[in-house]
Specification:
The chain is an alpha/beta fold. It folds into two domains: 261 residues, 3-Layer(aba) Sandwich (Alkaline Phosphatase, subunit A); 57 residues. The protein contains ten helices and 14 strands. β13 and β14 form a beta hairpin. The N terminus is likely disordered.
Length: 349
């Protein structure tokens, strides 16, 4: 795993992959291009158009199975779309970044909270952590500034186009390096507490990021590949296997936890445990205004996007055009595929 310039920026995670301790799930997609539905998609095994109240998420399901649930979340979750309430009443220990530091996206606050955690000796625990160092609003520590100009900030990244592109990308790379080391610290804390040996750990993201593609920086916008392709890594020392599948989605994460303990899956969940071999050939992606489907057809992969308000459509053959530069919507040889994707997209509200 390496950065945009081919230089390694995930030394800890790479060491686990090389040691055979971490399974890397390829071809993983986020539910949508921003945090709200990304996080809720992970927790509730729902695509964006299916996320409704009341929710029954993985914390609720595990609580029924006797688990204690802990949420340690960098960033302002209480005021952002009222996320704290949307996480449900099944959370036993909750902390987010609001009012905890000068910067709400200070991951060090959450690491200290994890270090101070008192683990139950009578109950298993579900721990959900959200780190912000990769995010533009996260606190970036000088010790991890390997790329870019000394002192470059988010504000400098917002200036002229050349400075913005270089500073934004460098800041993102440095954030990945920082999060990699924060994950190392989390593993060490779990090991020290004696809980890592029996743990199932899933490392992922709520969304990707635009680093200049399509003239964009940040996330949201249309769900093109840079903002909906995500990392998905699994640490599981129980001997469970994770078969390769054509496409994976965030909605598969919550079912993976329940399957690991032999618990039934809620009927309302749409994901499939990653321990299963899957013949699913399509996943749903989206943004606030755009609905999309990614589908594997034989050896080729297609993405169909439709703007909910304007009806604007795009069709990309990702196998030949991974950067989505050629809209093949009018290609007559793809009329059947387009008709199928178009019909299914109408079910995505």
């Amino acid at each position: 795993m390496s950065g945009l310039r081919g230089e390694p920026n995930t030394p800890f995670l790479t060491s686990l992959v090389n040691a055979g301790q971490l399974t890397r799930v390829e071809d993983a997609y986020s539910v949508c291009s921003f945090t709200y539905c990304g996080l809720l998609g992970i927790l509730s095994s729902k695509y964006r158009h299916l996320i409704t109240l009341p929710r029954w998420n993985v914390a609720d399901a595990l609580k029924v199975q006797g688990y204690e649930t802990h949420f340690l979340l960098s960033g302002e979750h209480s005021s952002y779309y009222d996320m704290r309430a949307k996480y449900g009443a099944g959370v036993d220990v909750y902390m987010d970044g609001e009012g905890k530091s000068v910067e709400s996206g200070d991951d060090q606050v959450m690491l200290r909270a994890l270090e101070a955690t008192r683990w139950s000796t009578t109950q298993p625990t579900f721990l959900f952590m959200h780190l912000m160092a990769v995010h533009s609003l996260g606190r970036h520590l000088p010790a991890y500034q390997r790329w870019g100009r000394p002192g470059a900030s988010l504000f400098s990244a917002m200036r002229g186009p050349v400075v913005r592109a270089n500073d934004y990308r460098d800041r993102y790379l440095n954030g990945i390096l920082q999060v990699d080391d924060e994950i190392r610290q989390i593993f060490e804390l779990l090991e020290h507490a004696g809980v890592l040996r029996d743990a199932l750990v899933v490392i992922t993201a709520d969304h990707g990021e635009y680093l200049g593609e399509f003239g964009r920086f940040g996330h949201e916008y249309w769900p093109y590949e840079p903002v909906v392709r995500i990392p998905l890594l699994i640490y599981d020392q129980t001997g469970a296997t994770y078969p390769t599948r054509a496409l994976t989605s965030q909605v598969d994460i919550a079912p993976t936890f329940l399957h690991a303990i032999g618990a039934p899956l809620p009927e309302s969940w749409v994901g499939e445990p990653l321990q299963y071999a899957s013949d699913r050939r399509a996943v749903i992606v989206g943004s606030i205004e755009v609905a999309g489907i990614v589908e594997q057809v034989g050896t080729r992969r297609y993405k169909y996007l439709r703007h909910r308000n304007t009806g604007q459509e795009s069709l990309f053959e990702l196998t030949a055009d991974p950067h989505e530069q050629r809209n093949v919507l009018t290609d007559p040889s793809l009329a059947g595929i387009l008709a199928s994707l178009r019909a299914r997209s109408r079910l995505i509200h």
